[in-house]
Write a structure and sequence with these properties.
Helix content: 40-55%
Shape: globular
CATH architecture of the largest domain: Up-down Bundle
Number of domains: 3
CATH topology of the largest domain: Glutathione S-transferase Yfyf (Class Pi), Chain A, domain 2
Strand content: 5-15%
Strand order of the largest sheet: 2-1-3-4
Mean pLDDT: 97
Low-confidence stretches: none
């Protein structure tokens, strides 16, 4: 469902690294609620400077509603959006499933500190392993217990925890990315849930933007051996000049093309480097591009 409404504003950090920002953004993208993002680079003066216009917020993500209310913290953002958009599906409609989803989101919001600390989110790499200590392994066991319990108690027959994709799943998306990045040991059922996240259209769009969204952050560097990202393999695209593109207008903005990429011998144009490079990172994540690609 999409809404013909004035957009919300959402302050986010680096897409590759800010797990809280990913969670907040999915609460809009996954449920068709329009939003304008305003990004600030972590560990710089950009974030506190930007947040001066969002008092009393001090962290990302922070939402401003169309009527001007400032709402920080993902769990509060989820509840406020659910109140304002009751038909969006942010929480399950079934009371038992809804209660379960809220339990899951609350524990994820407040817990798993060992996992967060040892394995900070980094969507730009994947490692063969990270030698997780016992505290991290304990967090992983708790995750598996919660995920299995949720599916059993709600009778979910979908890839998601409480039936249709809900805020509970958005809250666990950064954890799924950590399992993928650090090749953390989880069982087959949990890995199916992780793979559902890696293939989720909203997650793929966020990661595609994160791959090109600024320079690497030194804080997140690790010396573990690397492997290929375990999610869907992107289309084999490369940057080229703008000669002989199949389109004269950007598939996203409708503006004249100034940048281009090539896939299987066909050239596609875009209005700026960001539009081109997010498509280069994962073309199949973008419905407007894929409509052009299949035309």
């Amino acid at each position: 469902m999409t809404y013909d409404l004035p957009p919300y504003d959402l302050v986010i950090g680096d897409r590759a690294y800010s797990s809280w920002s990913l969670r907040g953004w999915l609460l809009f993208d996954a449920f068709g609620i329009p939003v304008r993002t305003h990004s600030a680079r972590l560990y710089t003066d950009e974030l506190p400077t930007l947040l001066k216009d969002y008092f009393p917020a001090r962290t990302v993500p922070t939402m401003r509603t169309p009527d001007g209310a400032v709402v920080p913290e993902t769990i509060v953002i989820a509840e406020e959006l659910a109140t304002r958009h009751p038909d969006a599906g942010i929480w399950p409609t079934d009371p038992h499933a809804r209660a379960t989803a809220r339990v899951l989101a609350a524990e994820m919001h407040a817990g798993f500190s060992a996992l967060r600390s040892h394995c900070p989110m980094n969507l730009r790499v994947s490692y063969t392993g990270c030698k997780p200590p016992e505290a991290v392994l304990s967090d992983l066991r708790r995750l598996e217990t919660l995920w299995s319990w949720a599916r059993q108690t709600t009778g979910s027959t979908t890839p998601w925890l409480c039936g249709a994709y809900s805020a509970a799943d958005a809250f666990f998306a950064p954890v799924a990315s950590r399992i993928a990045t650090y090749n953390l040991p989880v069982g087959p059922e949990a890995m199916l849930y992780v793979n559902a996240h890696l293939s989720h259209p909203g997650f793929r769009r966020w990661r595609a933007m994160g791959l090109i969204d600024g320079a690497d952050q030194d804080f997140y560097r690790r010396d573990y051996p690397r492997r290929d990202w375990p999610g869907p393999v992107p289309l084999p695209a490369r940057r080229v000049d703008c000669a002989d593109t199949v389109n004269s207008a950007c598939p996203y903005s409708g503006k004249p093309v100034t940048h281009a990429l090539e896939i299987y011998g066909r050239r596609f144009g875009f209005c700026n480097a960001f539009c081109r490079d997010k498509t280069l990172a994962d073309g199949e994540a973008w419905p407007k591009f894929m409509a052009l690609y299949h035309s």
